[in-house]
Amino acid sequence: MVIHASSDIQKGDEIWHSYISPLTDFMDRKETFNCWKFKCDCKLCEIEANDKNYLKRSEIAKQFNEFAEANKESPHIVIVKGESVLKEIRETYDEKNEFKIQLISVHMILSGIYFDIDNVIKSIEYLEAAISLMDNLIKYAFNIAQITVNLAHCYLLLGNYPKVKEMVQKAFKFSFCIDMDHFKMCFPEIANDLP
Ligand SMILES: [Zn+2]
């Protein structure tokens, strides 16, 4: 395993590592951390612990996840439901909330469903929205290189080669790969389409 620091480390600094995906619900994260006998005091946990809308939002997201799981065969129904859930969740956040985890999560689910029904343009729209919601500290906890490669793949299907190039450059930067051969090894799904 290779670990890259996302910022300079000074002598004596505490080093952070996200044990589990930050998309995991706060209560489930807390429970997992309990098993490892620690209480997480990262910024995300602090914000969610003090957020009066957290429980309501968590319930909406959980119900949607179950709904999407139960209706895999009916993507159009899940999309209609997902659009209204997005609106509901958006209303539970105020503008100064930095980490809109549940909103990211629903965007990712909808992007995948749109991709599966060959609506690449909508899939891109939701992936781009998810990425812009991660434009803060949270991006270091996600595999943002993979998400950007997925975007490159979508643009490739549309034949938008300048965008493919832009996304690959972005993904390369996020991936911390040492060169293009290394990058192709990490992302074989797009390797054949790269120069
Ligand atoms: Zn935490």
UniProtKB/TrEMBL annotation:
Entries under InterPro entries matching the protein: Gramillin-biosynth_MTr, SET_dom_sf, TPR-like_helical_dom_sf
Signal peptide (UniProt feature, chain positions): none
Protein known as: SET domain-containing protein
Organism for this UniProt entry: Panagrolaimus superbus
